[in-house]
Amino acid sequence: MINPILQSELADSVRAIARIPSNVPVTAESRLVEDLGIDSLDLVSIVLTAQETYGVAIDEDDVAELRTMADLVVYVDRRRNAAAA
Amino acid sequence: MWQRWMIVHKVVLKTVLPVLRRLPHRVSVALLGAMGRLDLLLVPNQAKKYETAVAEAAERLGCSWDVKDVSRKLSRHTYRWRARDFLLDGRSDRQIAPWFKVIGREHLDAAVAKGQGVVLLANHFGSHLLTSHWLFRQGYPLRWFSERPRNVSKYMTKQFQTDGPLGQARMFISRRSTPADAASSILRAGRALNAGLLVKVACDVRWCGTHTANASFLGRPLSFSKTWVSLAAMSGAAVLPVFCRIEEDGIYHLEFLPSYHVPKEVGRTGQDSWWVQNALNVVEDRVKHYPEQSNDYFFWGEVEEQVA
Question: Which residue of B has its CA nearest to A61?
């Protein structure tokens, strides 16, 4: 189950960092690289912003597994819950 | 032709290096110089090739070099440049210490002492690999943020075998990496900097793609990677430019320049291109002063075609 609020916040963040045009939808199914055209430095900025905003630690090794928006949202949510527990 | 000749150089070096390593360093360096001169004298069109490359560079840079003299000196450095750091293999730290003349070590130590990591801003000028070799020998915690070098000494290869989260093994990048893999490498490099390590990044890497900056270098408009700017901005690490050239007497002249910081907001303000150009201007200045140390740059086009 994807946290809709987190998804909306992360979608806004991704859109701003990667300068995604407003006519391109950012959905849970959107693939970060193939659909949204995100490159390595955008991805670094997205990860660093998520770490800072949500106080989570994102392992460098896990970044390669974050292929879609849903992957990103679920990962950040899980990390945030783990940190809170 | 040039590519084929580079392969010949490689084969010749592989044959003679074991012998050269047994000789006094000064003699080895002199012999490598003589081999380069022989190239120029014996290989058809080789002298013309060098002189054309030097003359073109002189014209683009507005330098009044003596083209024949620079070409001769450049040829003497060709095998030395191709020998990379292999001459130092099997030699002790004490043996090689007198072969280095270091200027600006205080800048290096001051940058390291800040504890926020150091982006060692490297280049392909002169005997650039010897900087890393010296740093490893001196015990500085160095990592490379680059493609894995194909030909380096056994000593250096051993230094690259560091493992773990901050190890070198997983910090090498590839032009064929996916954006996600490249992002992982950048984050690892950032973590290494946050841990206070030195991370070597070259400022003169020609690159294609979105995160590049168009800059003028050696009188030509080219596209360069600006990853080092992002890395310095996001980590807050000191940026320390370094140069290394080899002289006729076999001494490696290492020069560390004063460090500086790249503002955190550089990406947002769109000033990253300025930092890229600024770093390249410093390299270009060295090329103007020491054209005979510019083997890599003066034959860039041909090398690029070889890679493709």
Answer: B184
